[in-house]
């Protein structure tokens, strides 16, 4: 039996019944798909993961292990909190959440997000500093869209959630990459940022905690980011969607702490922390004690953009205060403890797979990122080839780093059932033994 991988299910019957027809009167249709979307989507993970799943062998007696996918919520051990479920049921039953919501989101939801984030911030945000979005994804889309202009460029880390890429391409914003330093706890190469920023740089994106590197930045490092942003006049967009998924020793520091040095846009959602990415609710938060985003017109643009975009369901918005306030600490601690044990196991098991090296043990998020040492392998040309052959021979799917902008790296999901992880490493060992270089040249 194969594991349930929702994004790849199609209804075979429907597809068979549909016939492709040309224009019935011999004319031509005046419309066609847009090339920009095709290019933007080509960097998406969904595309490559679908190809890898297709590449798995139906005739070998092994379940498909989808460790390239990053959604722990499909596994029974990662179930959302009962308080969150109750909040949604109550919201639904109340009858108070059946209407349209304003573009920026309903006040109770915005107030609840402000309170939730303010717990860790010296400069308190108000409800009006918060905008509700359809998951963090819409926060990304909104920010890139409202900041774009014909000459614009955006600074993205070399490893970044692919949607930043896609929306920058779609909005014709030039992408400039800065490096993360694997040997320095994946810190940002700040000199590189200075070198690539200019007067047309609309923003610098940071991800903290970092998916997929699994690090959290220190207070000192983030302070340097803020100081540099001030010097260069840059907007910092901090993607903190994983702020609840932390199991290492480094504490999480929200970028908003440094808002008095340089204003910060924080993006977040409940998708990862509450294990409910299908609920589609998130936020854009303005940590802006000096009203910079107001005077530069950014706030107005965001409101206008959200007025003409789809909103998160009112049912979820209405439930959000209870979701954020009532979920017990234990819930997060329990999830993080499972993840921490999985990381310990995988990090240890990697010692037998010499072609995959993890430079830093993750302390957050749900991934293990490894560097592929091709010199040890006989007939593997790169990360995509490695993952393709692994899928075909072992029905094990890992994500090639190339989709994330890191050629010859490979990403494991560790937010899975422990037994899957154990099975994966048995298969990897077999694969490595078959492909290891026999002669030293
Ligand atoms: C998952 C993820 C997102 C998208 O979050 P949603 O709330 O599911 O839209 C954004 N950024 C990063 C870094 C992510 O890992």
UniProtKB/TrEMBL annotation:
Keywords annotated in UniProt: Pyridoxal phosphate
Gene Ontology CC: cytosol
Organism: Arabis nemorensis
Region entry Disordered, spans: 1-24
Top-level taxonomy: Eukaryota, Viridiplantae, Streptophyta, Embryophyta, Tracheophyta
Modified residues (N6-(pyridoxal phosphate)lysine): 272
Family designation: Belongs to the class-I pyridoxal-phosphate-dependent aminotransferase family.
SUPFAM superfamilies xrefs: PLP-dependent transferases
Domain Aminotransferase class I/classII large positions: 65-427
PROSITE patterns on file: AA_TRANSFER_CLASS_1 (PS00105)
Gene Ontology MF terms in the entry: L-tyrosine-2-oxoglutarate transaminase activity; pyridoxal phosphate binding
Ranges of Basic and acidic residues composition bias in the record: 10-24
Cofactor: pyridoxal 5'-phosphate
Matches recorded under Pfam families: Aminotran_1_2
InterPro entries the record matches: Aminotransferase_I/II_large, NHTrfase_class1_PyrdxlP-BS, PyrdxlP-dep_Trfase, PyrdxlP-dep_Trfase_major, PyrdxlP-dep_Trfase_small, TyrNic_aminoTrfase
The protein's name in its UniProt record: Aminotransferase class I/classII large domain-containing protein
